[in-house]
Design goal:
The complex is a heterodimer of chains A (375) and B (100).
Chain A: H1 10-23, E1 28-34, H2 35-43, H3 46-49, E2 54-61, H4 63-66, H5 69-79, E3 84-88, H6 102-107, E4 111-114, H7 118-127, E5 132-139, H8 144-157, E6 162-169, H9 171-180, E7 188-192, H10 193-199, H11 205-211, E8 215-218, H12 222-238, E9 243-245, H13 257-266, E10 267-274, E11 278-287, H14 296-299, H15 315-319, H16 351-359, H17 363-371
Chain B: E1 5-15, E2 18-25, E3 28-33, E4 45-49, E5 52-57, H1 59-72, H2 74-79, H3 82-90, H4 94-99
Antiparallel strand pairs in B: 1-2, 1-4, 2-3, 4-5
The chains are: A alpha/beta (375), B alpha+beta (100).
Chain lengths: 375, 100
């Protein structure tokens, strides 16, 4: 869908686009951090409505995609045990581990259950006191407070048969890693709106200043993304690099103080590996020492599982914005949502799946154009 | 999974010392934890992520977003049967899979 009359407010979309076109005089490369934004951009063809000089690089903000293979393998190992009820969000079911996924573990007799909320997993634990109930706690700063509250409740209510496999990630250290990479092309960021609904904007001014890069907090709907792009290119054209909020209806400067306090209590910052990217210092959360009894890695002694990531999947390059999904030789042939090589093809927020869903039919034409010599 | 959906609070009660609400998401009703927005009142809207209200939202913005999400099928994606969706994606007959 790249017709502007399909936007919720076509008139406003047109005004925003006109303003962006009138503003841009030079090429700019912006990164949208969040996978939800990537999905929206590709689905609505926003990148094709923008001036050619504005490139959108798809960032690593899909938690399903960046959860390391090693953690998936730990999840598969725990979920296979007969005493365990393994609870997860639905989008982790088909993320490939080494040789299989949670969907297959269930087919082999594992008790894998999909929950809408981590509190559902806690309820299942209370209803099944003779079983071990494990929740797969992944996600960015948006999902971390619900998971933190769930562990806090388990401790408060003394629910001893509940534990969590935690692999949380944080956005600011990822921005720092991207900007510090020698191959970095990013000149401005659309920061993830709901991450900032929780965390506020306090972590970003230092990054904007140090890397001289505008950071604009942006929502997920098509008009939100156009407004985020508009404010970012305005700053770039003026030579500015400040933190701005283009999603004020859902983001306050201080975020959600109660949620931040709970994060402080339940988690501690740790180095974390990102699938396809590698270890980013200080980029994750794990359970704080007083909650260690609720750590599933510890309870099921899976700390020793170590997995090397296979070389054939180039999702690491996609997640760093070095490769567009359709430029990968496996895209749409070896690698499809039905037979994914990596997580970016599984999650609906993964860049590869978004291209596959909405751009696949355009691909032959694009490839044909590239093959035609320009005269 | 980072989708956060606006919903309207229908009623509020304390459960196990936790503030919980029934919330309506354009017709789908779910239990939602209000511990992070303790002063949210019946009739108000909030952005809800995996069963937790994370930020208050004004009614007009909430309605517009819900309308868009319904149109795009995102509400089905968020609240529908995950097994069925995963089965379809994996190429397994969803009816067979749900029966298991």
């Amino acid at each position: 869908m790249k017709y502007i009359d399909e936007f919720q407010d076509p008139e406003l979309a047109r005004r925003l686009l006109d303003d962006i076109h009138a503003t841009v005089t030079r090429p700019w490369a912006l990164m949208e951090v969040c996978g939800g934004q990537t999905h929206s951009i590709i689905r609505h063809g926003i990148d094709q409505l923008l001036p050619e000089k504005v490139e959108l690089i798809h960032g690593p903000g899909c938690p399903v995609c960046v959860t390391p293979l090693e953690v998936i393998d730990k999840a598969l190992e725990i979920a296979s045990r007969p005493e365990v009820i393994f609870c997860s969000f639905g989008d982790m079911l088909r993320v490939p581990g080494t040789g299989r996924d949670l969907f297959q573990v269930r087919g082999e007799g594992g008790d894998v259950r999909v929950v809408y909320s981590p509190l559902d997993a806690l309820r299942i634990a209370r209803q099944n006191p003779e079983r071990e109930v494990v929740f797969f706690g992944i996600g960015f700063e948006t999902t971390a407070p619900p998971n933190a509250m769930t562990v806090h409740q388990a401790r408060k209510l003394g629910i001893g048969n509940f534990s969590m496999l935690v692999s949380h990630v944080r956005v600011p250290p990822a921005i720092e890693a991207i900007m510090s990479s020698p191959s970095c092309r990013v000149q401005g960021f659309l920061a993830a709106g709901h991450v900032c609904s929780v965390m506020g904007m306090g972590e970003y001014p230092e990054l904007a200043e140090r890397f001289r890069v505008p950071i604009v907090v942006t929502g997920f709907e098509p008009l939100d993304i156009l407004e985020g792009v508009r404010r970012t290119v305005q700053q770039l054209e003026r030579g500015e690099h400040t933190v701005d909020n283009a999603y004020a209806r859902a983001v306050r400067a201080e975020g959600n103080p109660a949620a931040r306090a709970m994060l402080e209590d339940v988690f501690e910052v740790t180095d974390r590996a990102w699938r396809g990217i590698g270890v980013i210092p200080q980029s994750g959360w794990r359970l704080a020492p007083k909650y260690r009894a609720y750590d599933a890695e510890h309870r099921f002694s899976v700390e020793g599982i170590r997995t090397q990531e296979p070389a054939e999947c180039r999702s690491g390059e996609v997640l760093q914005g070095l490769l567009k999904p359709h430029e990968c030789e496996a895209f749409g042939t070896l690698c499809t949502p039905r037979t994914p090589l990596g997580a970016t093809m599984v999650s609906s927020e993964g860049a590869c799946a978004a291209y596959y869903l909405y751009r696949r039919l355009d691909m032959p034409a694009t490839k044909a154009q590239e093959a035609t010599p320009v005269v | 999974m980072c989708l956060a959906v606006p919903g309207r609070v229908l009623d509020i009660e304390e459960r196990d010392g936790t503030r919980m609400a029934t919330v309506d998401f354009g017709g789908v009703v779910k239990e939602v934890c209000l511990e992070y927005l303790p002063d949210l009142q019946v009739g108000e809207y909030a952005i809800v992520h995996v069963g937790f209200a994370l930020q208050r939202l004004d009614e007009e913005s909430a309605r517009q977003t819900l309308e868009l999400f319904a149109e795009l099928g995102l509400l089905q994606e968020e609240f529908g049967d995950a097994w069925e969706m995963a089965a379809t994606e994996a190429g397994v007959d969803p009816v067979e899979e749900v029966r298991k």
